[in-house]
Amino acid sequence: MQKSSCGRTLLLIIVGLLGLGGILGLYLWESYIQGLLPRPLPAFPTTLPFTPWPTPPAATTFDFPLLPADHYAPYVQGISGPLAVDTRYGAQNPAQGNRSNCFRDANGDPVPFSQLYHAGVDLFGVNEAGQVVWGQAKHAPVHAVADGVLVFTVNAGGEGYVVAIEHRLLDGSAVYSIYWHVSHVQALEGQPVTRGQMIAVVHDLGANSHLHWEMRTFYDGSDIFPAGTAGARGTCNRQLIGVGYTWDDVPARAHPDYYGYLDPIAFVESHR
C-alpha cells in the first residue's frame, strides 16, 4: 500500500514537471517570436580583399540601412507605442528628461536632454501593426545605403561602433551616412562599399537595440558648432563623430538642418 502511494506521488511529480517544461517551452518560443530573446548573428559574407579607394564613383541610388525597410521605424508616441518617445529626425524627446549633454545655454547652464533636437533617426524593429518590438533589431544586418567608401570607424565602448561612409554625388559634392550602435564591422577604413552591402550588425543593447542613422554633408563633426552657439559653449566640438543632437538658444540655429544634417528618410526616399 505504501509503495503504491509513493509510486503515484512520483508519477504525479513527473507529470507536473513535464507540464511545466511544456509551458516554459511555449513561453520561450513566444518570447523568441516577439524578439525578447537574442536574435542569433546572421551569416557574414566573405570579406572582400582590402583595396584602397580614396575617390568613390558617384552614388546615384540610395536605399535604407535596415532591410526590408518596412520592418524598421523610429519610435513615435501614439504610433509606435505609448511611451513619450520620439526618435525621428529633428524631433525633441521628452522622455530623455533633465539629464544633460554637451550643450550649454547663454547662462552657461546645461541644456536638458529633453530639449535637444535629434540629428538622425533611431530605427527599431516593428511588427505588422507598426508597433516597436523591443530588442527585435538586435543583430539585424546593417547595409551601406549607397556606393561609397568607408572613411572612419570609432569604438564607442558599450554603445557599439560608429561607422561613416562617404558618398560622392553627380554634382561633385559629398554626403556621409553615419551608422551608430553597430558591431561586427565588415569593412576597413578606406575600403569601397556598394549599395546594399552588409557592413555591420545592430549592436546588442538589450531591449533598446536600435540603429542610430544619420545623413549629413560634413565628414568631421569636431567643429560644427560656430562660436557663440550652445554647442561651442559646451563640449560638443572636438568630437569627430558629431554628437547626434543639436540645440541653441537662438531658434534659427537650433535645428539640425542649420548644421548640415539631412533628414535621412526623406533623403533616401528622394534618391531611390
Report on this structure.
This protein has helices spanning 2-33, 230-233, 264-269, and strands at 72-73, 100-104, 110-112, 117-118, 121-125, 141-143, 148-155, 161-168, 174-183, 192-193, 198-202, 211-216, 245-246, 261-262. The chain is α+β, with helices and mostly antiparallel strands. The protein folds into 2 domains: 1-33; 69-269, Glucose Permease (Domain IIA) (Distorted Sandwich). The strands form 3 sheets. Strands 1, 5, 6, 7, 8, 9, 10, 11, 12 and 14 form a 10-stranded antiparallel beta sheet that branches. Strands 2-3 form a two-stranded antiparallel ribbon. β8 (161-168) and β9 form a beta hairpin. The protein starts with a helix and ends with a helix.
Can you give the mean pLDDT?
A: 87
Q: Unreliable runs, pLDDT <50, ≥5 residues?
A: 26-33
CATH superfamily of the largest domain: Glucose Permease (Domain IIA)
Number of DSSP strand runs: 14
- CATH topology of the largest domain, by name, is Glucose Permease (Domain IIA)
* Rg (CA only): 23 Å
Shape designation? globular
- Secondary-structure-based class equals alpha+beta
The CATH architecture term of the largest domain is: Distorted Sandwich
Short key terms for the protein model shown above:
single chain; 272 residues; alpha+beta; Glucose Permease (Domain IIA); 2 domains; 10-stranded antiparallel β-sheet; globular
Summarize the model shown:
By secondary structure, the protein is α+β, with helices and mostly antiparallel strands. Helices cover 15% and strands 23% of the residues. The chain folds into two domains: 1-33; 69-269, Glucose Permease (Domain IIA), CATH 2.70.70.10.
